[in-house]
Amino acid sequence: MKKNITSFLSCFLILQVSAQINSNFLRREAKDTASIHLNMDATYNRPFLKSDKLPIALGGYAEANYQYIKEDGISEGHQFQMRRTTLFFSSSIANRFSFLSEIEFEDGTKEINIEFAALDFEISSLLNIRSGIVMNPIGAFNQNHDGPKWDFVDRPISATQLLPATFSNVGFGIYGKTGNKVWVYGYEFYLTNGLNNRIIENEESKTFLPAVKKDIDRFEESFNGSFLTTAKITAKKNNVGELGLSWMGGVYNKFQDDGFILDKKRRADVFAIDFNTKISKINTAITAEWAWVKVGVPETYTEQFGKNQQGGFIDFVKPIFRTKIFGVEKSIVNVVLRIEYVDWNKGKFKSINENIAEDVFSIVSGISWRPTSETVFRINYRYNWQKDILGNPTTKLGGIQIGVSTYF
Description:
single chain, disordered N terminus
């Protein structure tokens, strides 16, 4: 496996070098900025290297960072991390047929995942058919997650610890959009392989939706033979912002085996709302997302397994300088702020009628420098306040993170 990966990377690097030597062989194809884009367009709206002599376009991005974090005064010291390297390639197979794949290498090669590998068939702008490994459009971050697009080192807690970030599955569906120069409307609807019981049977010993990603067999078969349905509608008005409403749900437990009924069907459902805008008067971009999770936990499980969860984040990014820095024209320096919250167990203890805690509140501030729109250097200071299920004294975490992320 690693030998094949090494060969692929070697070929990719050779093409990169060839592009520098002969600009007629490969050319940089920038992101499309000719129309109003939605978060659902993020999959294809990326910079690629393209050549008329090759049937595919290549691209990718990388993220690396340094951090020094203390939790209740205890630290693991100075840490360097290679968070991820992602490669993507696309091909226009024939008129109206296109294919795109995204492969991610996390923490070096500790994890290797195919996050997207789908064939699209365009019938019209309002109706397209997609099949293969699709990215479930729950919220906005799950699809629009590329590191260079964000001015924060960490991904939002709600996207990684409440929802399964970059969650994808095998299936098919339809999507499309329509509009004019002012308004754009979009929709997505997918049926994929279902969820699994890792939601409540996991190392976290709590209801934890991200654990479903650990079932690597989901790309081969459905855990319980049931569909996972994901649907999203989006509306965007030029100079106002984009609003998205999404739902993902399905049965997560194995309720039957070889025709024998084992349990009643237990569902997990996620509802999310996302919004992004830019306020011209204060020259500030705002991105927000909030999600609600409802899980049918068996009555035999203790109250540490939450039936209701919620959480989200809001980001503020404000440019403060647009000037030449280190010889780079039109560099942009931003000040950034993220406020986020997650409650993994929203409810009360039945015996004492008091609120169940198990939540985290976080503030991340920082500065980012963008020499180009495709590269970002970022310095963040993170501070978390987290409570356990019993509401014991708050655990405090704080520290500095310095990172870089770039398309290549």
